[in-house]
C-alpha cells in the first residue's frame, strides 16, 4: 500500500523530543504543536462543559493481529489509510461543528498539498447541511493561527481544482480568516472566534 | 497493554467468511453484520444527501512504523485503545447526531459489558449539549434492531452503576425503543426513526 500524502507516523513522547540536539525540528514532528494545542484546548472545553469536540483516531487498515497471550492483542501489520473526513468534529451551542487543522512552515502561502480532496468534499457536505465548518491554519514561523470559514476557503479550492494556484497566499488567508487568540488555558481559544463569526454575525 | 473489554480485532473479508464450514458464526465475526449494514446505510444517506454520518476509525496506539521503501509505511507494532467516544457521529437536518451500535446474541437481555463507561459519558455530554443521541441495539437471534434514545437508556445505566442489573431486559428495550425497518437500500433506515422520535414529537 502506498503511503498517502500528508500522513506521517505520529511521533511519540513530549514536545521536547521533536527537536534534534542542535535544536532543529525533526521531520516527523512537523505539525505536532498545533495538534497538541488543540487536544489541550478540546480537553479544556470538555471539562468546562463548553463543547464536546474530539479528534478522530488516525484511520488505519489492520491486516494482522497477533495474540501473544489471552489478554493481549498486538497489531503487527497495519497501514495508514487516506482519511475520508476531517479530523475534528463535535457539538457546540447545539450545533454540529467540523474542522480540519493544518500547520505549515511556509512563510508566504498555505499549500493545498496539506489537504485531501476527500476531506474538503466532506467539509463541503457538512457546510451544506448547516454545520459550522472551518479550517484552522497555523503559520509556524509567525506563530499565528487562523480560523478560515469553509465558505471563504472553497473559492480558492475550486480555482485550484480548475487548474489555478496550488496554494492560498498568506495575505489572502489573513484577509479571509479570524486570527486566534493564544493563551495558557485554553491554548487556542477557537470557540471565541466561532462565537464571533457564526453566532454574533448571525450567519 | 491489556486487551480492552468489548474490542475484538476486525475480521476481514465478506460476510460469508463469518461462518465456519458447518455454519456456525465465528467468534471474531460477532457484531459485524450490524456494522456492515450501518456502513451501507450511511453511504446511502451520504449519496442521497440526506445526512453526513460516519463511523469513526478504530482507535489504535501506534508504537512502531517501519519503512521498507520510501513510499511505504508499515505499522508493525500497535495496540487497540479503549474508545473515548461513541463510534458514529455526524449531522442530520442541521442537528448534531451521535450514536453507538451494538449487537448481541443474547435472547433475553442486552448486557452492559458491551458498552464502555467512557462512551456513555460521552453520549450523556452530547445529549446535554442538545444533540440527537441514541444507541442502536440488535438482537441477532430475532433479527430485530432497536433505536433506544439515550434519555431512555440512562436510567438503566445509572441503576447498573449503583449496583443494579448488569443488563437491560429485551422486553424493557422493546418498550423504550423504536423498532427499525430493515430493507435493501438503506438496510437499516434509522433516520426514519430519528424523524419520528426527535422531530415529529417535537422533543
Short description:
The structure is a homodimer of 203-residue chains. By secondary structure, chain A is of the alpha+beta class.
Rg of chain A computed from alpha carbons, rounded to a whole number of angstroms: 18 Å
Q: If helices are DSSP runs of H or I spanning 4 or more residues, what is the number of helices of chain A?
A: 5
Most extensive chain interface and residues per partner: A-B, 50 and 49 residues
Number of strands of chain A: 10
Secondary-structure element series of chain A: HEEEEEEHEEHEHEH
**Mass-distribution shape of chain A:** globular
Any overview of this molecule?
The structure is a homodimer of 203-residue chains. The first copy, chain A, is α+β, with helices and mostly antiparallel strands. Chain A has a domain at 39-60 and 83-200: Trna Endonuclease, Chain: A, domain 1. Helices cover 29% and strands 30% of the residues of chain A. Chain A contains five helices and ten strands, in the order H-E-E-E-E-E-E-H-E-E-H-E-H-E-H. Chain A has helices spanning 32-47, 117-128, 150-161, 170-176, 190-200; strands at residues 51-55, 60-69, 72-80, 88-92, 95-104, 109-111, 132-139, 144-149, 167-169, 178-179. In chain A, the strands form three sheets. The first copy, chain A, has a six-stranded mixed sheet with strand order 1-4-5-7-8-10, with helices on both faces. The longest helix of chain A is centred in the first third of the chain and has 16 residues, at 32-47. The radius of gyration of chain A is 18 Å and the shape is globular. The model of chain A is unreliable at 8-17 and 25-31 (pLDDT under 50). At the A-B interface, strand 1, strand 2, strand 3, strand 4 and strand 5 of A face strand 1, strand 2, strand 3, strand 4 and strand 5 of B.
